[in-house]
Design a protein that fits this description.
- InterPro entries: Homeodomain-like_sf, HTH-type_TetR-like_transc_reg, HTH_TetR, Tet_transcr_reg_TetR-rel_C_sf, TetR_SbtR-like_C.
- Keywords: DNA-binding, Transcription, Transcription regulation.
- By secondary structure, the chain is mainly alpha-helical.
- It folds into two domains: 13-62, Arc Repressor Mutant, subunit A; 70-198, Tetracycline Repressor, domain 2 (Orthogonal Bundle).
- 71% of the residues lie in helices and 0% in strands.
- It has nine helices and no strands.
- Helix 6 packs antiparallel against helix 7 (133-150) and helix 6 packs across helix 8 (160-177).
- The longest helix has 28 residues, at 94-121.
- It is elongated.
- It starts with a helix and ends in an 8-residue tail after the last helix.
């Protein structure tokens, strides 16, 4: 679901309350439709799912690519918010918090790749998000990794840069697995086993 903050337009002129609601409905519907049917799903289907006319969709998002980019940015904002909430919660089980967050990042990365590929295929270069989402995610990952290592749940020699490389690789592998949930879950399980300390390293 798209958060209210993520649903806000970037234009300098604020939208009326009803227009903001329509925009948020379109974004939420688009995310659901693209998740279920892929980024190639037609904009008309998004309009039907949102319960609005196609004109309303194009009023807020003049092109299909603009809609794809808006959904992508909304997802990234939401995930960054969730990451910071996990850090703030300071779980009593740092290992579980780390691996749950990591699984979510892998899933999000797979979806993000699909959006980027669709935009690139359309000849659209997605500008780097100016709100510092990447920095927020890296900061959260670093804190969760350190806590999990201190608790003995993750191998001590792992550093954040290596972890990012692993996430990218597993996200691509998850895309390759496609609808085969068993294969995706198995790949993630093998990854997580490799991140845990060996029997001799455990405290």
């Amino acid at each position: 679901m798209v958060t209210p903050a993520a649903a806000e337009p970037t234009e300098s002129k604020p939208l009326r309350a009803d227009a903001r609601r329509n925009r948020a409905r379109v974004l939420e519907a688009a995310e659901s439709v693209f998740a279920a049917k892929g980024t190639g799903a037609p904009t008309e289907e998004v309009a039907r799912a949102a319960g609005v006319g196609i004109g309303t969709v194009f009023r807020h998002f003049p092109t299909k690519e603009a809609l794809l980019e808006a959904v992508l940015i909304a997802r990234l904002h939401r995930f960054a918010d969730e990451a910071e909430a996990v850090v703030a919660a300071d779980s009593a089980d740092p290992g579980a918090a780390f691996f749950t967050f990591l699984a979510g990042w892998i899933e999000m990365s797979s979806a993000k790749n699909a959006y980027f590929e669709a935009l690139t295929a359309a000849g659209v270069t997605v500008p780097k998000e100016k709100s510092g989402i990447g920095g927020r995610l890296l900061g959260a990952l670093g804190v969760l990794l350190s806590r999990a290592q201190a608790a003995g749940a993750v191998r001590e020699d792992l550093v954040t840069g290596e972890l990012i490389t692993i996430i990218i690789g597993v996200a691509k592998a998850a895309e390759y697995a496609g609808p085969d949930a068993r294969l995706r879950d198995r790949a993630v399980t093998i990854l997580f086993d490799g991140l845990r300390p060996s029997a001799g390293e455990r405290r």
